[in-house]
Amino acid sequence: MADDTTTAAAAAAPAGAPSGPTTLWVERTGTRRYTGHSSRGAEVLIGSESVPGVFTPGELLKIALAACSGMSSDFPLSRRLGDDYDATIRVSGAADRENEVYPQLDEVFELDLSELDDAARERLLVTVQRAIDKVCTVGRTLKAGSKVTLSFEIDTVD
């Protein structure tokens, strides 16, 4: 359940023109079903693996990692390959259900570098890896670990 200040902040933010940091929240829409929202107007459907048409939280984590790698490498790749280059980043990793973690996530970056010679290809891949290692916040957070806190805002009867 979103608190009133979060909902009010989202309603007050004009589409495409956030006045401050993006506010994120999820709202329950059914049994093990949620809709994720941003104050910029984006939505994503989230739920159990058995629910059609939704992403699981773990799938969103993996997609966030792949998207972060892609976005982090966009500048060096577009500078060398042109703005219209194609890229697909596949990401996988099975959950360890006993410990409720993903012990390993594997990304495969698919690029057509056939126009480059071996030396140019190697230089570009080193540059791309460095860019991802330097600016992909999601990957850096997963590698380093992150402190997560949880608090509760409870409605009570006066």
UniProtKB/TrEMBL annotation:
Q: Where is this region: Disordered?
A: 1-24
Instruction: Give one Pfam family, short name only.
Output: OsmC
Q: What class of enzyme is it?
A: oxidoreductase
Q: Mind telling me which InterPro entries this protein's record contains?
A: KH_dom-like_a/b, OsmC/Ohr_fam, OsmC/Ohrsf
Per the UniProt record, which EC number(s) apply here?
1.11.1.-
Q: Which GO terms describe its molecular function?
A: peroxidase activity
Q: Which UniProt keywords apply?
A: Oxidoreductase, Peroxidase
Compositionally biased region (Low complexity) = 1-23
What name goes with this protein? Answer: OsmC family protein
